[in-house]
Design a protein that fits this description.
heterodimer, A: 152 residues, 62% helix, globular, B: 162 residues, mainly alpha
Chain lengths: 152, 162
């Protein structure tokens, strides 16, 4: 890790700040707003995901055409493509139950803590418990370890 | 062109307008774009859970995230900091949810399991994956969106508020 570019961590921090500011500004860090959306009372939330995907999509499309490798890591620009299998449907459904019940997803939960919502620690604790349970089970079932992916 | 009926329908679908949502979304996308531009990493928020668990657990499932766990901590710290700066500038203090702790906890457990089984969350699949036009991610987003809508509607119809 010592061979990382000195600007690597500062850039990650700046990206995180923009990301968190956006989640707070869009009000997605408030579970009530997400629940209103899921109950068809306010469709504004579509613009958050859409707006974000358009900007990131533009970067994913343009940057690899301008450069081959990233200045701070030397890694090649690649598309974020994950293999499709039924886990995407099973996991997506489990995620959907949780999102619909609580109105909170991982990034928005961290941002929610940032806007002073200490009650959200219940959700964050729940996510760690869920991720641990899933990881514990997966470690038992399969010992194959595919190479780590950078996304999620 | 802007007939009053259209405006009224727009007002009903978007009681809080759209600018705060769209602008917030642009910032979220900008955060992803900045990190991608510098590092070629399309960052998502949910792997932080597993990568942070690798500090405490020797399970093989978590160990593969050891190389990325330090920057994921920084990314998450940045999210908290960015949201806190919003709260200081626009919100004028802390805001707390009225959603019951049990909903937050139980929902969190489902989210924690689901995001790991399903290989992504609203940022990994929803922003990075959809931005990459990944069919897997688009399918994932449609799946969790539909299930979340049904879940929220059922919970609301059972009279659970908030």
């Amino acid at each position: 890790m010592s061979d990382r570019h000195p600007l690597f961590m500062p850039l990650i921090l700046i990206g995180g700040i923009l990301f968190g500011f956006g989640l707070a500004y869009s009000q997605m860090a408030r579970p009530e707003v997400v629940l209103d959306f899921l109950q068809f009372e306010d469709f504004g939330l579509l613009f958050v995901m859409f707006g974000a995907a358009v900007v990131s999509g533009l970067a994913f499309f343009l940057v690899p055409r301008l450069r081959d490798t990233a200045p701070l890591t030397g890694d090649r620009y690649e598309r974020r493509l994950k293999p499709f299998d039924r886990n995407v449907l099973i996991g997506g459904s489990i995620f959907g139950v949780g999102w619909g019940l609580s109105g909170i997803c991982p990034g928005a939960a961290y941002a929610s803590f940032g806007i002073g919502n200490v009650t959200i620690l219940w959700s964050i604790a729940g996510m760690f418990i869920g991720a641990y349970a899933q990881g514990y089970w997966r470690s038992r079932v399969t010992e194959d370890a595919p190479s780590p992916t950078s996304a999620d | 062109m802007l007939d009053p009926v259209v405006l009224q329908v727009g007002g009903e679908l978007f009681p809080n307008g759209i600018s705060r949502y769209a602008l917030g979304g642009l910032f979220v996308g900008l955060g992803v774009a900045v990190i991608y531009l510098g590092t070629a990493i399309p960052p998502g928020a949910s792997t932080f859970l597993e990568s942070t668990l690798s500090y405490f657990s020797g399970q093989s499932r978590f160990q593969k995230y050891v190389p990325s766990r330090d920057w994921r901590l920084v990314f998450t710290f940045g999210i908290v900091l960015g949201a806190a700066s919003y709260a200081l500038i626009y919100q004028g203090g802390a805001w707390t949810t009225a959603v019951h702790p049990w909903r937050l906890l139980v929902g969190g457990v489902f989210v924690g399991v689901g995001t790991r089984v399903g290989k992504g969350c609203t940022s990994g699949h929803g922003v990075c994956g959809v931005g990459s036009a990944s069919k897997t991610s688009i399918t994932g987003v449609i799946t969790f969106l539909l299930v979340a809508i049904v879940t929220a509607q059922v919970v609301a119809s059972l009279g659970v508020t908030p």
